[in-house]
Automatic annotation (TrEMBL):
The lineage of its organism: Bacteria, Pseudomonadati, Bacteroidota, Flavobacteriia, Flavobacteriales. Belongs to the pirin family. It comes from the Bacteria. It comes from Flagellimonas maritima. SUPFAM superfamilies: RmlC-like cupins (SSF51182). This is Quercetin 2,3-dioxygenase. Pfam families: Pirin, Pirin_C. Residues 57-140 form the Pirin N-terminal domain. Keywords: Dioxygenase, Oxidoreductase. GO terms for molecular function: dioxygenase activity. Gene3D superfamilies: Jelly Rolls. Residues 202-304 form the Pirin C-terminal domain.
């Protein structure tokens, strides 16, 4: 069984990924209570490298936020972002005019395509006690034929995401098919939209002192299992500690023995695109020349400009979960 393990890698910041995925990061921040502007009190920001605060201090980070944690407006081109918020909330705003507040199990799927700006801020809505944020952000590549597809904004509300409750495990199916349970449709021009590509994103939770069987894939795909919380696990005779990723042979069914704490995994799987990748910050193309053109176009057009009053735009504290689409459609939860 341990022959199913191709490699074991430490989980850094961000996590190492395999084609067709470009990037995966896990944010777990135990924020303090919020102030009137939905950020931490100013005195708590002293000693932080504001605008570039990725150091875990007092259990949380500000990232690129100056007063509210998060990522003020920035551009993307040539790929998709998939943001899974298990705890806390994310406020989205973009250059298409789309906006939303999502969290507590929701997922946002955004196709950057030919180019979009967006901001992702983490408002501290609770003023009485702490605000915990737990999220994954995943970058899924687009093939050359779809690099310039129209940008697309989609919400997968947690009420609609399939969650499979087995005897000793719970599997949340963000993308793909788990034992016949099909995820919601992804963005229309996504690599995941073609089921032949077997793209799967599963958040798996398995009880302590139990076994979990990961089914084999139907085709030749890359599969990475990220073990981000728990005690040790065993795959055959190989022991794996938490905060390690496991590159697996997806053609094999794999039995995982769980240690004395509940184990939490994220699985990313998909058929590789097998095209050249050129990356520079928020742009992902096939050649360096295309990257240079993307930078020049962004400087010229700002990918449509920024229609919001602030770079770190957040929505009213009283707003619940909602999505406003570029065509003006408003969905409130």
């Amino acid at each position: 069984m341990s022959s199913a393990i191709v490699n074991i890698i430490p989980l850094g910041f961000p996590w190492q990924t395999q084609d067709p995925f470009l990037f995966c990061v896990y944010h777990l921040d135990h924020y303090t209570k919020g102030n009137e502007t939905m950020g931490p009190d100013p005195e708590l920001l002293e000693g932080r490298d504001l605008g570039n605060d990725f150091t875990l201090k007092d259990g949380w980070r500000m990232y690129h936020g100056q007063t509210i944690p998060g990522f003020p407006n920035h551009p993307h081109r040539g790929f998709e972002t998939i943001t899974i918020v298990n705890k806390g909330y994310c406020d989205h705003s973009d250059s298409l005019g789309a906006a939303g507040r999502f969290g507590e199990g929701d997922t946002q799927w955004m196709t950057a395509g030919r180019g979009v700006q967006h901001s992702e801020m983490f408002p501290l809505l609770n003023m009485e006690s702490g605000n915990t944020l737990e999220l994954f952000q995943i970058w899924l590549n687009l093939p050359k034929a779809d690099k310039f597809t129209e940008p697309h904004f989609k919400m997968l509300w947690h009420e609609d995401i399939p969650v499979i409750n087995e005897e000793n495990a719970q599997i949340k199916v963000i993308a793909g098919n788990y034992k016949g349970s099909q995820a919601n449709e992804p963005a229309p021009n996504s690599w995941a939209a073609n089921t032949d590509n077997e793209v799967a994103i599963w958040n798996i939770h398995v009880d302590a002192d139990q076994e979990f069987v990961l089914p084999k894939a139907k085709t030749n795909v890359n599969r990475t299992l990220y073990f981000y919380e728990g005690s040790e696990i065993y795959i055959g005779n190989r022991k794996v500690n938490p905060n390690f990723g496991i590159l697996l042979d997806a053609s094999q069914e794999i039995t995982i023995k769980i240690g004395d704490k509940k184990a939490h995994f994220l699985m990313l799987q998909g058929k590789p695109i097998n095209e050249p990748v050129s990356k520079y910050g928020p742009f992902v193309m096939n050649t360096d020349e295309e990257i240079q053109k993307a930078m020049e176009e962004y400087q010229l057009t700002q990918f449509g400009g920024w229609p919001w009053p602030y770079a770190d735009n957040v929505h009213d504290r009283e707003k619940g979960r909602f999505a406003k689409y570029p065509d003006g459609t408003l969905i409130e939860k």
